Amino acid sequence: MKSFISKSKYAVLLGVLLSITTLSSAAAQIIPHVPNGSFEEGSTPWNGIAEVQVPLQWELSWAEDEVWGRPTTYVRYAPGSFLTRDGRSYFAAETVGRPMFLRMRQPIKDVVDPGEIYTLVLPIFPEILDRPSPGKVYESNPAAVAVQLRLYSGGVQIFDSGLLDGNSIAVGRWSRLEVNFEPKGTDVEIHLEMRALDPANALNAFYLDGIDLKSTGLISPTRQAELANASEYTVQAGDNLIAIANKVQVDLAELMYFNRMNNSSLIYPGMILKIPREYDQEAELAAEEAAQTESLIPEIIEGGEGEGSGDGETADADGEEEAAPAAPEPTGPTIHVVQSGEFLARIAARYGVSYLDIMAANGITNPNFIFPGQELVIPGA
User: Fold this and answer.
1) Is the overall model pTM greater than 0.90, yes or no?
2) Interior CA angle at 361 toward 343 and 351, to 5°?
3) Which terminus of the chain has a lower count of CB atoms within 10 Å, N or C?
């Protein structure tokens, strides 16, 4: 039979390593992150055909012609079976007396962060038998079995194992494909192809269970480069994200994504935010402090000879002092309309009051949550 594989190999593609280790049949405790990766959610018949069961969350396709046979597929409930790796069910695809080509696909959305490194674990058990009984006789030609795993993310292919034959994927036992990868988006799409190529075999079958996706907790090289070139902003009392975004001249959505924040994320004084551009907070704060100090210096009215003593009184033509007009009576509370980029601490300093008093007067519970156009009562101003 013509070989479809030149040689077995470990595949390194796009900077991603595929490692393969042979496992014993003992079940490993894996918490699945791939939807229905352990096939506990069951299956549904394809086009009403009971012999072709499609696992929920997955898509199946196959070659079916005068050479290739449509496989029988099913999800079997078999707790304690050596074919059950981490639960009570497993997936099976089988043909008898015909070769098989089966492709499984699952797109998974909003499960990964392109700033981290993730691991996909895929246990697989090829059952390729020359003779099922008496005593199993497994296929001895490594070229008669082939497995290929591809991963996609952000609309591009990020991994391709190439064709792995029986020298890499053990026949008659569990093997585990393990891929470390850096996603290009928040999605991952799994493509798995399984081929049993010898039509003379009594049974061509593949079993799957315990497909798992998990974070390694490692920052990706792309994210490391982003953070290395980022500036820092230390959150001040009274800050809010809108004001910070305006101050550092970064779009709010970009600022939140760069710091991996969502709408429920809270900020607090002393928290350090990464800024995806050059920004000098120390210089900014020094400039603000200088401006506030200048605004608090009282104006001095300088008077010349015969123009008054500069103490708030003026002299008339006869030299008699005339009292300055009385200040108008206040007509109501002072109202401040929040401007873009303002925060409570700055507003409070402008009026010489505590930002806590402003919060109390306006029923504000979170100093970060003020917005442009909001009217604030300034107590004691």
Assistant:
1) no
2) 50
3) N
Structural domain contains residue 306? no
Percent of the chain past pLDDT 90, that is, above it, reads 33
Distance between CA atoms of residues 110 and 112, nearest Å: 6
Q: Tell me the three state secondary structure of residue 78.
A: coil
By mean pLDDT, which of 28-37, 197-206, 245-254, 340-349 is the weakest? 28-37
Tokens 């600022």 found at = 255
224: in domain: no
Looking at the 3D structure of the chain, how many domains does it have?
A: 2
Q: Answer for the pair 202, 247: CB distance below 8 angstroms, yes or no.
A: no
List alpha helices for 89-175, DSSP H: none
Q: How far is CA 147 from CA 14, 51, 64, 314, in A?
A: 19, 23, 18, 99
Whether 171 contacts 139, CB under 8 Å: yes
Task: Supply the CATH number for residue 277's domain.
Answer: 3.10.350.10
Q: Please, which residues have CB within 8 angstroms of residue 365's CB and are 6 or more apart in sequence?
A: 359
